[in-house]
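Troubleshooting log. The previous run stalled partway through. Resubmitting the same three chains, unchanged.
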Amino acid sequence: MRFVDEFREPELISKAAEEIRRLARTERHYRMMEVCGGHTHAIYRFGLKDILPENIELIHGPGCPVCVLPMGRIDDGLSIAQQSEVTFAAFGDMMRVPGTQGSPLEHKARGMDVRIVYSPSDALKLARLNPEKHVMFFAIGFETTAPSTALTMMRAKAEGIRNFSVFCNHVTIIPAIRAILDSPDMRLDAFIGPGHVSTVIGCRPYEWIAQNERKPIVVSGFEPLDMLQSIVMLLRQLSAGEAKVENQYKRVVPWEGNRAALRAMAEVFQLRPYFEWRGLGFISQSALRINDKYAEWDAEQRFAVPGIRVTDPKAAQCGEVLKGVLKPHQCKLFGRECTPEHPIGALMVSSEGSCAAYHNYEHRKAAMVSLNSVA
Amino acid sequence: MCLAIPGKIVEISSENLDSALVDVVGVRRRIDLGLLQDDKPVPGDWVLVHVGFAMSKISEQDAADQMNTLRMLGEIEGAMQEVRGYGLEDVN
Amino acid sequence: MRFRDPQIEMAHGAGGKASRKLVEGLFAPLLFGAAPGPLGDAAHIDINGTAVAITTDSFVVKPLRFPGGSIGELAVNGTVNDLAVSGARAEALVVSYVLEAGLSTHVLEAEVRAMAKAARDAGVRIAAGDTKVVEHGKADQMYVTTAGIGRPLPGVTIDPRSVRVGDRILLSGPIGDHGITILLARGELDFEADLRSDTRSVLSLVEELIHAAGPGIRWMRDPTRGGAATSLNELARDCGLGMILFEDQIPVRDTVRGACELLGLDPLHIANEGQFLAVVSPEYVDAAINAMSLAPGGSEAQVIGEVREQPAGTVLVTTLYGGSRIVDMLVGDPLPRIC
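Second attempt completed without errors. Output:
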């Protein structure tokens, strides 16, 4: 696979790992946060922790849009679909996320019309082909995905497709990073910056992290060589006492971002004054809602939404894990009441949630006598 | 948040210039080029595909530059080690 | 551990953790009585001194026809294969159809012809059958169940408890073809690929393997729903050892790889209908691979891993650069993701 396989070349990966071991000062303990859930997933999928030295600690950040979605929002979306003839369309990532009355898949088992789509345009297509049904697209994602939702709504409006609406849960990444840095429990040395969000917002929005907070941040790709190279770049900055924004993912991320994507977002969305993030509480100016020009395609305007807040069980420590204060296995419910089969929090359901990743990919490795016997 | 894969534009629809057929090692799908209006790709270009939309063009030059940088990792250090071996070492 | 879920969900049929819970927590204790031992693909029983292997399988697939096959072929090959990997040669099948009222006779006939042909190709006879018809709206056009009876093959004993540290893990060919073909054939995700289901009888390949390496074969399984990851996890649990796979040695077609990357799926979790896994002792591995790779349909057979003590009860995939990850069973069906 072009532009994928080259960045997975084993020899080069070993070389990069060697360079990291050379650069990482043994007396120092480095705490680097990867913000984006996709990076969390990549770390586990490629087993990167196995080849990093012990004194580099990767801390998982809150960039998992499924994980930070409050349960009440899932309930709201599902309650709209309960109204007759409304089809609930969402990405596969949402299908097993529990609401108080069950997940979308469980609702499907009880008769609701629930469809998995790969693209918001597929949801619009469903509406186009089935004029007698109303199709509601349950939208999630950061700025990576928001432009695609926006463009889909623009197309719906242009075509005059009225049996389509969007339940918008798009959130923005910068407030999440701010919340991390504002958190008193958090001590971080550097950031591995989100790669795909940056194809839309560019690298400028991270400048305050370097200038005001004095933390290096490298916008990183998702292949093993991308992440390792980003860590090399961070180590070099830390060695030199620097703090700047660098773009490791140049082949795909433009420094100025994607103007057309930002225009589409501005056309359809506006910032909510505040939004609740599961585990992180209310954050102002951190989420998008559909503006009045597109009210007709806003599910929250077209349908009655209960808007009930659902608080997580007190024992669930999703918030601390999301902020990286706790490791997944340090949560009291991990592996006991909260497992992939019976998830309590979204971090155990989402494929990029740190709890699921840790449970599925990692925690039995801790029981291994020695990893040296591997490979 | 971030599953996006490089794909090659195989064909652009004649009826809708925003619709293109993309190929990923033999898997094909129609994608929307609407987010690349300011820098329209042509057949043969590689784009990053996320939820059925092209997010960005992939720069082959930048990819090649990156591979070169990666290949050189450790070579500079290798050269330094040789130099130190001759007793001509510089402070790191 | 008793089965406590209040209702049956799709996940319970996906072959993963939820399925296992249902089987072990409800069916096994009530149907099989106390401590039947590790559950296998087929049962080998003794009828008045004659050893007989017997198995059953239901086929529920949408769409009925897909590139490379149809429900008819699956119904025959699936049961022949279950018997084969239990170390038995299928002699006869019986088939049961549940048909939806309104099903076109043309469609039904096509499937029945496909079954007849698949049975001829597999060298097995269809001895008896049954039909029921249910109301329109049920049975997704048709459900097919087959049961197979066969003769245990000499020279091989399948028992997960016989697996030892140092044994090798073999795979007959590329994984993921069937599941991805079905996913694309459903049309919901709007992808296209030049890909076919791998449905076939693996009996002749199994017989070649037994002939060359019989005494060294510890265990075999056909990784259908739930994929190779599920089969190997079950083995790891049953024998208490670690299954270590070498990622670069697992055969996967480029197109399957591409589809999996696009959809965020792992080929190890995808269903196969024409492949099997075998665990073979080190002394017999070379003979095993040679025999399989020279046999028709076995050219892509590979050693994909080995059995170690740690991590116990777990499947671990390792890479050439020293990275590793656990591969667990999924809860239910693999779902495409965008994150």
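Takeaways: The CA atoms of residues 37 and 352 of chain A lie 5 Å apart. Chain A is about 35% helix and 15% strand.
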